[in-house]
Every structure is written in C-alpha cells, then in structure tokens.
Design a protein that fits this description.
two-stranded antiparallel sheet; 9 helices; 7-stranded mixed β-sheet; alpha/beta
C-alpha cells in the first residue's frame, strides 16, 4: 500500500486477480510466496523502508541488525494484513476477539455521537467486515482511493451498517459528517498522519515529538464528543484482537488544552498497543519529522 498518498498500491486487475486467487488458494501459500519474493524487494524499494528502519533504530532503540530483522518482520506482517483484507473480499472469515466494544454497541438510541480514532497499526479495516454497529458508523476514508477498492469496501461494509465518507480531496463532505454527528451516529477517523502541514498538533510518542492531524481532535472538542482509540491487532495464530479504549479529556478546559489532552491520550494509547505488538507499526511515514523542517526528530 502506498501509505504516503493514502491509496492502495497497484492496479484494479491486480486486486481482482488476488481476490479470485484467494477463493481457491490457501492464504498461507500466499503468505509464503510473499515472504520469499515480495518482501525482500519491498525492503529495498519501498518508500516506507527508511522511516520504518529509523523507527526501530532510533525510537525503539533496537540494534542495527535487530532493526533490519524487525523491518523484514514488519513488512511481512503488513503484507499479511493486506492479504487478509482481500481474503475477506473473497469470503474468508477471521476470528476476532473484542475488548471494550460495549462502548460502541450498547448505547441508547438517543445517545450523542462518539468519535473512534484509529491509527496505522494492526489492521483496523478488519473490523469493517466483522463488527456490526447498531447505529450507522461513518468511516472517514481518503477520497482519492481507487474505485475498485472502494467498491469492495461498499460490498463488504454494507451489511455491517457502515458508511464511508470520502475526505482529503477538493470535494468537501463536511455536511455529511455534521449530519452524522447530529444524528448521533459513530464517526471513525485516522489521526496519525496529516495532509496539511499547517493543520497539525504536536504530541509525544516513544519520548519524541510527533505531529498529528489536528482535524479529528478539533472535531471532537468542538462537539464535546466522547472519544475512543480503536484498533485490531494481528495475533500469531492468524486471528485478531480488537480494542476500544476511552481517551479522556477535561471538557471544561479551554479548547486548545482539550485538543492537547486528547492528542496526548491518543498517542499514549498507540504506545501501549505497540508495547504488546511492536512489529505492527504500519504508518510508513516519519511523523517525527517537524512539518517544513526536513529533519527527523528523535
């Protein structure tokens, strides 16, 4: 996946061929092919190799060769989550264990809207195929994604009461977001990568400053929304563990301080997950790099 641009890497015929193949070929066979042939080339050629290697070397303080091994395992696990996503399109099902999801499910009909903040760790998209929301859940997705991928999502998400709202392009969908909030529906957004260097909020991850998208935090604070961190992490047996964790902030403080509290709670939740799943950091961009500076932090 070409994470820096928010689109899935490849062509429509590749996705269709992969989905067709996964209807008849073992997922483990695809994993093995990927491990032998795709991952080594990805490590050499992918844009995400350098920032990911830097992540393990400078932010997790791994040794040089330990960082190289971690990079390989990281790419391999990421490849597995991508294969798993297309396997879901092909009709496969993965076991998912849920932790804390009563906050998103057992809510009164007249309850106000909540915000679920995701991040590029694990494979949160797996929840779209496995968890049925009682009230409509609106996922903010990159509007420049390839149509074939969007079509697969529409088919898979439709039965789970999930609706996609495209964002990040010139076409504004703010009215759809505001209507969803007014209707008390759930909003899911990623906040660990920004598109506009002028609209960021700083926090701390692994002891160094990071820069996040300010928009989701501003939306939560402006509408006094209860906010949670949501993620699904891949387990060694091939199943997933999904987590929904409250992100507390003091709604009586000035809005700037509320945004900062919320951003700090978000990065703290990411860090806690990465302590248990250190190889599932799939951001593939250097969020430690100060916007406009050209220098990596930490």
């Amino acid at each position: 996946m070409k994470k820096s641009e928010g689109t899935t890497y490849g062509y429509s015929w590749m996705y269709k061929a992969l989905v067709a193949m996964l209807r008849s070929v073992s997922i483990k066979a695809v994993y093995a092919f990927m491990a032998l042939f795709a991952i080594p080339f990805s490590m050499l050629l992918a844009r995400g190799s350098r920032p990911t290697l830097r992540y393990y070397r400078h932010h997790r303080h791994y040794g040089r060769w330990q960082s190289v091994v971690a990079l390989y395992r990281n790419f391999y696990l990421f490849g597995q989550t991508v294969v798993d996503k297309f396997a879901m399109y092909a009709g496969h099902h993965f076991g998912v264990t849920y932790h804390g999801f009563e906050h998103a499910y057992d809510r009164p009909e007249d309850a106000p809207s909540i915000l679920l903040l995701s991040a590029h760790i694990g494979c949160s998209e797996i929840l779209g195929y496995s968890f049925h929301f009682k009230k409509t859940c609106n996922v903010l997705v990159y509007g420049g994604e390839k149509q074939s991928v969007m079509d697969y999502r529409e088919i898979s998400f439709g039965s789970m009461n999930i609706r996609m709202i495209p964002v990040g392009t010139r076409t504004s969908h703010s009215d759809a977001i505001l209507r969803a909030i007014d209707n008390g529906e759930t909003i899911i957004a990623f906040a660990d990568r920004f598109a506009n260097a002028g609209k960021v909020i700083a926090s701390t991850l692994h002891g160094s400053p990071v820069y996040l998208a300010r928009g989701p935090f501003a939306m939560a604070v402006t509408r006094s929304m209860d906010t949670y961190m949501i993620c699904a992490m891949k387990e060694p047996d091939g199943s997933y563990s999904a987590y929904l964790t409250a992100l507390p902030y003091d709604k009586t403080l000035p809005m700037k301080q509320q945004r900062q509290q919320l951003a700090d709670a978000y990065t703290a939740a990411i860090e806690r997950q990465l302590e248990h799943y250190p190889l599932q950091w799939f951001n593939f961009s250097d969020i430690w790099k100060e916007p406009g500076s050209g220098k990596a932090q930490g």
